Each structure stands twice: as structure tokens, then as C-alpha cells.
Predict the structure.
Amino acid sequence: MLAMVRESMFQIAGPWLDGGRVLDLFSGSGSLGLEALSRGAASVRFFEISREARETLEQNIALLGGGERCTVVAGDAVEPGLWGPGPFDLVLLDPPFPMIRATDGRTKVLAALEALAAGPLEEEGLIVLHVPRGALTPANIPADLAHTVREHGDQAVWYLQRR
């Protein structure tokens, strides 16, 4: 994710960070969740399926002294049963672009959005979804989620909340 895209995203998500509980799906090295911590989140639950990425994520958490406020889960980010107890004030959803471009991957991500809206998302919580520009249309978004989209070059960031 480009630095300007990340900065714009966190400016919009700022109100959900102060003392908020964050769920970071498709965490990778943890850059989004760790930035959420640095901007005031109380805790972050990271999900990463890749062992190598998890090792890097755990090293980054240790380097930044975030251990007590972070949980790292080895598992599939689109499996709602693994997310653990909510509610989460902010959900960061940054699937790999090849996944969201593939029909089956996109279907899994959209099913995860539905599950988030129905379950662990705080009533006034926010989901931030980062995808390739044009990968989704408003018709793809579950009807019970209000949305705003910001496009940045070849990327799009969707901001979703319960209606």
C-alpha cells in the first residue's frame, strides 16, 4: 500500500482508533495494525496464514514493544470462526490483490464482509477494505453495509459501516 493511501486511510479511520479494538485481516508484516497501535488503538488482533509473514510480524511487534496489546493468529483471515470475540471498532481488510481479482477469492472476501457486519463489528464500527481499483462495485457490497470509496491511482479503499 502506498504511503499516501495509508495516510489517507488513517486520517479517515482516526475516530475509531482512540482506545479501539482492531482486527487486522491479511496482516502480512503488520504495517497497518501496528500503525493503528501507534495512533492510539488499545489492541490489535492480527491474522496471517503465511508462516514467514507471521515470523516477520512477530518480530515487528517485538521491535515496537506492542506484545501485550497484540495477538497474532495463524489462520485463514476469511474464516469467521477464527476471529475470536469482538466487538471490534475497526477492521482492516487488505487481501492480496490476486485473491480479490479471482472470483473465488473475491467471493470469500465478500462473505467475510457479511460475517463481520453480522457479528464482531461494533455497532458503530468501521471496516476498511483495500482492493485494486475496479475490483468491486457497489452491487458487490452487502446491502446491510453503507459504503464510501476513495480511489487512489490503481487502488481503492472502501469504508463500510452497518446501516
Summary: Residues 3-162 form a domain with the Rossmann fold fold (CATH 3.40.50.150). Helices lie at 3-13, 31-38, 51-63, 97-101, 103-118.
